[in-house]
Every structure is written in structure tokens, then in C-alpha cells.
């Protein structure tokens, strides 16, 4: 059991996943990709033939599913790791993530995950600094220019990334926003190593 958390938020392509994973490695902490959780629920919803906008049914799936997020992402016994970034999932995930019932089920699981680690946890997403772990010992908000974020998203159409970002920022339930206590890093012209080193240095100053 350990309550130590480094919370990292930011839009798609800001470098969250790569930075969070490497910071966790450097500190010997666990890593949690919360976007993968919303994506896994979306894969399950699509597999069940549900409409992503059917709030009650989708929330029921989120509350009752058995979800494992680690090297592989497994939901209700199916390894969906290779499905997470497919186009149909990119299209449907915003509606799933905007569903308050889905969010409360995921937030509960995210807090439980962190509580059960032997060391601390680096958690990344959109509402981690603001809602899930508002008392995290270190909060980081990553940004990057629109051009750079689109470039990093590689084969996903830039208009699809922009649409998801607008949905994440504009929704009522836990929208993406920069927390007042978060330390902000613009990663546009910086290497991953450089950003990781900065976050690790902050983390070590706090411990
Ligand atoms: O980080 P990502 O692109 O894998 O996230 C997928 C979607 O899930 C994206 O639309 C934002 C949403 N999300 C969220 O609403 N809250 C989180 N904590 C993480 C992701």
C-alpha cells in the first residue's frame, strides 16, 4: 500500500505517455495510462454492439467490467491492446469518456490501483491533477504546439486528434484543464530525456 502519486495531464500528443512511463521507470514506481482504460471500455462497448452514446448501457459496462491495465490491456478476458488505437475506437472514445457514469467507475479503479502499489505511481490522463488525485505530491501539465502534437500522433488524421481534444476540453464531466498547482512543461522543442530528467528532479526534491 502506498499513496504517493505523480499526476500528469495534457492533451493528445503532448508526450504524457512516454514521459510518464519513463519517469516511473527512473523512480522504480508503477505507471498507469488512464486513457487506455477509457479506450478499453470503448472496445468492449463496440464489441457488444452498443451505441457509444447510450449513456446508461455504456456506464453499466464500465461499472461491471473486469479490467486489467499493464503491459497488456485486458477487458472481460479479452486482450484488447492491439485494438486501442483503431479508428473506430478513436471516433467513439470521446463519447465514452464524457459519460459521468463511466468516469466515476474509472476514477474509483484508478485510485484503487495507486493504493495497491508497493511504491508510488505515475498516473497520466486528462483529469488526474484536477479530479482523480487533487492532492498528488507532484502535478505536471504537459503541452506542445498543435503542429508538433499532430506530428507525434503519426498515422492518426490531425482532424481526428483535434476533434478529440476539443471534446476533452469542452465536456461537462471533468474537462481537460490546467490545474493551478501543476508545473507546466512545453515539450515542443525538448527531448524526452530532458523532460523526464526535469520531472524526476522535481520528484526527488519533494521526497
Ligand atoms: O490519452 P488517450 O488519447 O489515450 O485518451 C483517450 C481518450 O480518453 C481521450 O479522448 C481522452 C480520454 N481520457 C479522459 O477523458 N480522461 C483520462 N483520464 C484519460 C483519457
What does this structure look like?
Helices cover 50% and strands 15% of the residues. With 207 residues, the protein is of the alpha/beta class. The protein has one domain: 3-Layer(aba) Sandwich (Rossmann fold). The strands form two sheets. Strands 2-6-1-7-8 form a five-stranded parallel sheet, sandwiched between helices. α3 (55-64) runs parallel beside α5 (100-115). 2'-deoxycytidine-5'-monophosphate (DC) binds at residues 12, 34-35, 38-39, 93-94, 97, 125-128, 164, 168.
Q: Can you lay out the helices and strands and say which pair or pack?
A:
Layout (H helix, E strand, L loop, with lengths): L4 E5 L6 H12 L2 E4 H14 L7 H10 L2 E3 L3 E3 L2 E2 L7 H11 L2 H16 L5 E5 L2 H5 L5 E6 L2 H7 L5 H13 L12 E4 L5 H15 L1
Parallel strand pairs: 1-6, 1-7, 2-6, 7-8
Antiparallel strand pairs: 3-4, 4-5
Helix pairs in contact: 1-9, 2-4, 3-5, 4-8
The structure holds 2'-deoxycytidine-5'-monophosphate (DC).
Amino acid at each position: 500500500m502506498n499513496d504517493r502519486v505523480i499526476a500528469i495531464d495534457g492533451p493528445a500528443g503532448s508526450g504524457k505517455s512516454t514521459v510518464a512511463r519513463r519517469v516511473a521507470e527512473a523512480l522504480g514506481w508503477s505507471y498507469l495510462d488512464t486513457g487506455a482504460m477509457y479506450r478499453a471500455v470503448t472496445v468492449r462497448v463496440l464489441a457488444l454492439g452498443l451505441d457509444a452514446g447510450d449513456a446508461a448501457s455504456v456506464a453499466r459496462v464500465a461499472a461491471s467490467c473486469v479490467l486489467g491495465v499493464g503491459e497488456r490491456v485486458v477487458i472481460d478476458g479479452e486482450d484488447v491492446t492491439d485494438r486501442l488505437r483503431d479508428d473506430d475506437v478513436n471516433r467513439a472514445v470521446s463519447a465514452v469518456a464524457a459519460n459521468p457514469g463511466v468516469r466515476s467507475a474509472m476514477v474509483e479503479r484508478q485510485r484503487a490501483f495507486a493504493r495497491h502499489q508497493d511504491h508510488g505511481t505515475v498516473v497520466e490522463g486528462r483529469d488526474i491533477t484536477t479530479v482523480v488525485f487533487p492532492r498528488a505530491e507532484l502535478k505536471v501539465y504537459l503541452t506542445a504546439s498543435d503542429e508538433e502534437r499532430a506530428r507525434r500522433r503519426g498515422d492518426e488524421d490531425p482532424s481526428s486528434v483535434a476533434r478529440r481534444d476539443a471534446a476533452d476540453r469542452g465536456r461537462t464531466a471533468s474537462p481537460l484543464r490546467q490545474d493551478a498547482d501543476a508545473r507546466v512543461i512545453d515539450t515542443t522543442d525538448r527531448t524526452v530525456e530532458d523532460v523526464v530528467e526535469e520531472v524526476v528532479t522535481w520528484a526527488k526534491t519533494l521526497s
